[in-house]
Amino acid sequence: MKYMSEYRDPELAKKYLEEIKNTVSRPWSIMEVCGGQTHSLVKNGIIEMLPDSVTMIHGPGCPVCVTPLNLIDKAVYLAAEKGVILCSFGDMLRVPGSQKSLLEAKAEGADVRILYSPLEAVKIAEDNPDREVVFFAVGFETTAPANALSVVHAHRRGVKNYSILASHVLVPPAIKAVIDDEESKIDGFLAAGHVCTIMGNTEYHPISAEYKVPIVVTGFEPLDVLQGILMVIRQLEQSKSEVENQYARIVREDGNPDAQKVINEVFEIRNQMWRGIGEIPESGYAVREKYADFDATKKYNVTIEEAPENPDCISGQIMKGIKKPFECSQFGKTCKPTNPLGAPMVSSEGACAAYYHFSGLVEA
Amino acid sequence: MCLAIPGKIKSVEMQYDGKVRMAKVLFGGITKEASLEMLPDADIGDYVLVHVGVAISKVNEEEAQKTFKYLEEIGELGDLTDVDEYLPKTN
Predict the structure, then answer these.
(1) Which residues contact A104 (CB under 8 A, 6 or more apart)?
(2) Any CB–CB contact under 8 A between B30 and chain A?
(3) Which end of chain A is more exposed for a tag (fewer CB within 10 A), N or C?
(4) Does A205 touch chain B (CB under 8 A)?
(5) Angstrom distances, CA of residue A276 to CA of A83, A96, A99, A283, A343
(6) pLDDT of the residue at A329
(7) CB of A344 within 8 Å of any CB in chain B?
C-alpha cells in the first residue's frame, strides 16, 4: 500500500541502523510514547538490531491499557445489568474488569458489539429507538475527534438514546509525569505521530525546553521509527533539546484545526486516572455540560466500588518504563493474552502482549 | 488503538440529509467509508489518513520523500558494507 510499504524497505533500514551505530558515542535511553510504536519496534525486531548502548523504554501510550478498572466495571454493569447496547473498539472488550471483561459479559448474553467507528454506534441508536446505546469512548487525542463527532452527529440528528462513556487520555501531561517520576531515566522521546496529527507539535516545545529533552514526532513504520531514533540520538550527541518532526508527511505544526474544534466543542480538560499509574492532572477529557445528555456517566449515575488491582500485575512499572515485561514473574506463565492479569497483556499495543507475540521469549 | 492508515479517496458523497461529506477510501484492495468533516479540502484522488472512520490528515507528497533522502541530507553516510551483524538471524 502506498505510503506504507515503502517505509518498510529493509535496505534503507540497514542504512539507518548503521548510521545510528556510527552516531552513538555513549548509552542513551529513549522512550517511545505510543503503543503503536512499541508494536512496530518489537514486531520488526528493531530492538535487537539497535546497538546495545541504545535502550528503548516503552511508554504508557496504550489507551486501552490505562483505562481505569472501575470504568470497565461500569461498562460491564451497563451492558449486563442495564440492558444497554454497549459498543466499543475490539481491544477494549477484552480487557479484564474486576469480575469479568465485556466479552465475557457478551458470552453471558449481554448485547456487546465491536465497532470500527463510533459513528456506527449513532446509526445503531437510530435503528434501535427503543434501546439505549452506549459507546465506550476510549483513546488518546487521535481518537477524540471521532468520539466527539459521534456526539455532534447524535445531537444534530436528535438521537436521544445515544451516549458515550468517555475515558480519554492526553499525551503531553503523561510525558511530564513520566519525566517527573524519580525512578525514570529517559534521555529523549519519540512522540506519537497520530496524536500530533490532531494536536500538532506546539504542546511539546515547552516540555522540551523545560526538561531539556529532545522530542521527535515520529511515525509507525520501521523506517519512521528508525529515523525518529536517529534524530533523537543526533540531538543528544550534540547536546540539543528540540522538537523535530519526522512524520511531516502527515503531521502539520498546528495539527488539524477542524479536529481540534470538534474536540473543544464536546470535551473539556479534566484530571484523569490512568490505570497502573494514578491520577495525572489535566490529562483527560470530560464531556461538556452542554452535551450532558450524551454523557453516560451522568445519564446512568452508576456508582461501583473501586476494586483492587491484581497484586501480581506490575503494569504500572511496565507503563512507566521502569520494568520490561520479561522482568515480571507472571509474564508468559500465569499472564498470557488468553488469560491477561493486566491490560498491557490485552491490547496488541500493550508492551506485554507485544513481547509475548513477537519477542521470541515465549513459545506462543 | 491510534492505528491510522493512508488510503486514496475514490468518491465523495453527501450523507445524513446532505449535511456530512463522506468518502469511499481505497486501502489496497479494501474500500471503507470515512467522514471528511475534519478535512473539508480533501477530494477524489487525495491520499488521506483514516482513523476509526474519520479522515484526519492529507498526505503531503513532498514531505513523504524526506525519509528516503534524510541520510543523504545529513551527509554522513559512511561505508555500509559491514552491517551483517545487525540483520535478523533467519535460522
Answers:
(1) none
(2) no
(3) C
(4) no
(5) 30, 14, 18, 15, 9
(6) 94
(7) no
